[in-house]
Amino acid sequence: MEKKLVSFIVAGDPNPGATLRFMRALTKYSDIIELGIPFSDPMADGETIQRANIRALKGGMKVSKVFDIIREFRAYSNTPVVVMTYYNPVYNMGVENFVRKLKEAGGDGLIVVDLPVEEAEDYLSICRSYNIGTVFLAAPNTPEDRLREIDRACSLFLYLVSLYGTTGVRDDISNLALNFLKRAKGICKNPIYVGFGVWKREHARKLIEGGADGVVVGSAYVKIIERYGDSEETLKKLEEKSKELKEGILEGCKK
């Protein structure tokens, strides 16, 4: 199985047109683009991504524009797009309406961060009917029985959170993450992708060597966008960072 790089950015940061250009820059080395819908209270995200959410919302980003961006992106690339959101925007639009619009735009999957798997039966049924892949998160303290339940609810991959707390850059991959990865690989049937705190080549290599099927990277890209804004330098830096991470994944495959 090919090991995957999932690259996350916040839709509309710093403006919708820039998001489309950023997606195109990332697609050269990324296997999946994860596109976050900006939300006023992104409780799973650290300060870097929280600030990106604020910039996007201040810039007038709305859920409907996310679908427009995906639709425009489809004119350039077939790279899968997974949308990350909280449940409130989905609920407000209506679950079936939201999923239908995502499918019509060309989206491939959906992560609803704060939707517990125990309350997701109707959501899962709707996603299956529109052939939208589902992804749920599991944390290091997730017990075995619940991990199995989360695994059954996933149809794209299981998103393993590498640490306690929120997203953000960390110095190294902890033994906690590697031990959890090993435990999850012995339980789950889906591919397991690891995120939170992953931002450099060495992290990607270690996780792939530890058995991960992919890595999810967000804050590293969002920091670049925060620093350089809507510019050619941002496009260059995003491509360079995704290349570095993909090289780390390939190095990890050689072990």
From TrEMBL:
Specify the pathway.
Answer: Amino-acid biosynthesis; L-tryptophan biosynthesis; L-tryptophan from chorismate: step 5/5
Q: Which Gene3D superfamilies match?
A: Aldolase class I
Task: List the GO cellular component terms.
Answer: cytosol
Class of the enzyme per the UniProt entry, highest EC level: lyase
Q: Which residues form a coiled coil?
A: 221-248
Transmembrane stretches, start-end: none
Q: What is its EC number?
A: 4.2.1.20
Keywords for this protein: Amino-acid biosynthesis, Aromatic amino acid biosynthesis, Coiled coil, Lyase, Tryptophan biosynthesis
Family assignment from sequence similarity: Belongs to the TrpA family.
> What name appears for this protein in its UniProt entry?
Tryptophan synthase alpha chain
Instruction: Tell me what organism the protein belongs to.
Output: Methanothermococcus okinawensis
